[in-house]
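It is worth pausing here to work through a concrete case rather than discussing structure prediction in the abstract. The textbook approach is simple: state the sequence, then state the predicted structure, then interpret. We follow exactly that order.
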Amino acid sequence: MAGTQPDEASIRYEGWRIVAVCFAVATFSWALGFYGQSVYLAELQRLHGWPASLISTATTFFYLGSALLVAFVGDAIRVVGPRTCLLGGLAATALGTALLGRIDAPWQLYGIYVLLAIGWAGTSLGAITSTLGLWFDKRRGMAISLALNGASFGGIAGVPLLVLAIGHLGFAGATLAVALASLLLIAPLVALLVGRPPAHPASGAGVGAVQALSSGAVRRHALRDRNFLIVTIAFALVLFSQVGFIVHVIAYLDPLIGRERAAAAVSLLTMMAVVGRVLMSAVIDRIDQRLASALSFASQAAALTLLLMTRDPVLMLVACALFGFSVGNLITLPALIIQREFAPTSFGVLVSLNTAINQVTYAFGPGVVGLLRDASGSYTLPFAACIALELIAAGLILVRK
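Step two, the predicted structure:
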């Protein structure tokens, strides 16, 4: 019975087991669906000679397609349960990744990205935060922060391992190997450990829980709410810049410091994302989360400025580390601000809506950065635009009722 369950503060509470599973899912999802995009772009350019704008526009298509699904992932979890949603996302991501190494025409890339979009919607931010919202109320901030460290770990381990596998197996062999390995390791964890969530009367959590308003009414109200729009727009601008930079970072650094050092820079970036999120998780439920967001935005702008101004390999690594320190928190903070400022019963719907809007926006990041790079002949113009958007968002997030 729910009443006999240990408290959320107890290490014996079953929700912490779900946090561990979500950590593993996030590792898989971000390694292949997010950080892997920079590797895919560089490899597809090398293998086929396709322009950066073509490949990054396909990445935009991927994010747009998954955004349409993410908006409803909270509803899907309530209907079919978190286990089915996560397993479906894992299967779609694994299949899409395996097929990605076997394409030889641009139109096939778009077809594969439909599969990856389904997988990303079922395993990424919206699915993980909505799943954890079914188990956690008072410790939700810490639970989400800890689980999403898997996203950073996916970059730390995933990108170097993928580059290493490509070196030994080729692109086709590497994508098949990592897809199979990830699916065989993680799907059993989800199948065995993710069961039926407990009911949280205060938060209205639990599959089949009754909401005060329908999902559609919650969405309509949110799109007229000033605070929700400010939070969503500010993070959309920053994530547009963040995703655009991360997808192109290897292509930018490769000719300057080499492929292996570029992959190491991505690993350092994501390691710092873990450090930043772990440090923030200890205080995230007690601090001004909007101010923390503004400082994070400004730090990324400073990092991009340093990266543009230097050609010293050490300073480039420093810039990537500074940029990475806030990467993890920027995918955690929107959900925590929503939890603090809006009704608990609307959490799943609002997080899914926020994630979908942000994703529609940052879906254009890789494509726009690629187009500006091809048009200007360098990454100076697109990265300068990213800096400007980061600073605008830093001011906007501090505006509140």
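Step three, interpretation. The domain at 14-193 is CATH 1.20.1250.20 (Growth Hormone; Chain: A;). DSSP finds 17 helices and no strands in the chain.
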